[in-house]
Amino acid sequence: MAPYASDDSTTAAEGDDLRAGRRKAARYVVPVAVVGVAAATIGLVPAIADSGDPDLPEITAQQLIEKIAQSDVQQMSGTFKITTDLGLPDLGGLESSLASGAMGSGPGSGDGSSADPSAKLTELASGTHTLRVAADGPDRQKLSLLENAAEYSLIHNGKDVWGYDSKSNEVFHGTADEAKGGQDKEDVPATPKDFAEEALKAADDTTAVTVDGTAQVAGRDAYRLLIKPKQSGTTVGAITVAVDAETGMPLKFTLTPSSGGAAVVDAGFTQVSFAKPAASTFDFTPPKGAKVTEESKLDGAPSEHGSAKSEDELRKELDKEFGGLKSGDGHGKASEGGPEVIGEGWNSVAVFDTGGEGVPSGGEVGGDLGGFLDSLGDKVSGKFGSGTVFKTRLINALITDDGKVYVGAVDKDALVKAANSGK
Questions:
Q1: In the predicted model, is pLDDT for residue 369 greater than 60?
Q2: How far, in Å, CA of 408 to CA of 236, rounded?
Q3: Are 72 and 156 within one domain?
Q4: What is the pLDDT of residue 423?
Q5: pLDDT of residue 387
């Protein structure tokens, strides 16, 4: 089926309606996210080959966005795969050590549990993974990460949140905050739908949003929503969202970089059902002999790393630092208490001042970490002075020798330009 016509020629009034639809779509999340940091890494999912080109009624981008906004899926189950390719070098297990050390958890850390989602689900930040999900309203969700001869499950059932690592036979137990009505769980990307909403938040006058034909995902007919930056200098090439034609729920999310090649993030269901899952799906009892770690003990008691912060506190700090980076208006604060933002739209660059010197070179940092820094870094200079650009296929950062950090989904030249303009 041929791509549908672009909607770039909408009138001012239609444009207002389109933006309103995007904002509404960005506020709604199907209740699949389980809890906090766990949800933050669940949505990084791989390309599922389209198995058809269904003949569906034509629809405009605005109508499709409204369809996402009106989607009201409360019960579902399915399987999806996760592939994330940021182009990072093989760190030989260094990334796991760094993550465990930063979170104060993981095997052998002395405080924490390998079943803690904030530690376990960092594994989803690279490679390919298969997961099963189930949801029955806002109070019952389950996610299972399938591994070689092992399985990790994260279950939210009423007041209880359980994490279970079958490999280590460890259990993590926390409680859901009913007073927040589940809203916090909806703030963090978890599924193709969550990623679609984040992309729609970014859609403004610097973005072209069109309907790019149809597809079939997990055996279901879907429309393809295409989101493309109009600006040059961004590392984002295009975002494609496959939207279920019947329910309006995004089934697949693909982000391709401007540099070409494989997708950076590919998220798609291989099987999905909208029937009500059995109540027993969300039951959990710690297996005999399992080590059980209570979240309250991790949050409430100081450790060798200092006073532990709750997942909610950590996420609020991240929201404060990084919230609204896409909404910069040239210069100034993106949000209350947030970093300075240079540029606008997809070319927004956040600026942090560490108040110290730049990152040491590999010669000053030994072992794997020094080699890792050297492998990512490119020396640059300009009106701002000199520094090092650290690159992935999506997010790049310039760390100046005087301790300022410029970070965004932009290329090296855009970072240098931002640093020069900030002087």
A1: no
A2: 11
A3: yes
A4: 62
A5: 92
CB atoms within 10 A of CB 218: 20
Of the candidates 236, 241, 232, the residue with the CA atom closest to the CA atom of residue 259: 236
Residues 6 or more apart whose CB falls under 8 angstroms from that of 169 comprise 287, 289, 290, 291
Q: Which helix (H) or strand (E) holds 17?
A: helix 12-27
Residues 268 and 48 sit within 8 Å (Cβ to Cβ): yes
Residue 117: pLDDT band with limits 50, 70, 90: confident
- CB count, 10 Å around CB of 154? 26
pLDDT, mean of residues 237-247 = 95
pLDDT value at position 307? 39
**Cα-flanking dihedrals φ and ψ of residue 414, to 5°?**
-65, -35
Find the domain containing 357 and state its range: 329-421
* Residue 192 confidence (pLDDT) above 60: yes
Q: What is the mean pLDDT of the segment spanning 199-206?
A: 76
**Closest Cα to residue 79, out of 131, 146, 156?**
131
- Which residues lie closer than 8 Å to 41 by C-beta, 6 or more apart? 121, 122, 124, 125
Measured in Å, how far apart are the chain's first and last C-alpha atoms? 51
Name the one residue in this structure whose structure tokens are 């999506």. 394
Output the domain CATH number for residue 287: 2.50.20.10
221 and 149 in a common domain: yes
Domain count, the chain: 2
Question: CB of 79 within 8 A of CB of 131?
Answer: yes
Give the three-class secondary structure for 156. Answer: strand
CB 136 within 8 A of CB 158: no
Give residue for tokens 């090439």: 237
- Residue with token string 């009624």: 57
Per the CB < 8 A criterion, the answer to whether 271 and 134 are in contact is no
Question: What per-residue confidence (pLDDT) applies to 21?
Answer: 52
Q: Taking a C-beta distance cutoff of 8 angstroms, is the pair 30, 43 a contact?
A: no
Q: Element (H or E) spanning 273, and its range? A: strand 265-273
User: Could you read off the pLDDT of 74-91 as tens digits, one per residue?
Assistant: 999 999 898 989 887 554
- Among candidates 348, 351, 345, 341, which has minimal Cα distance to 384? 351
Confidence of residue 230 (pLDDT cuts 50, 70, 90): very high
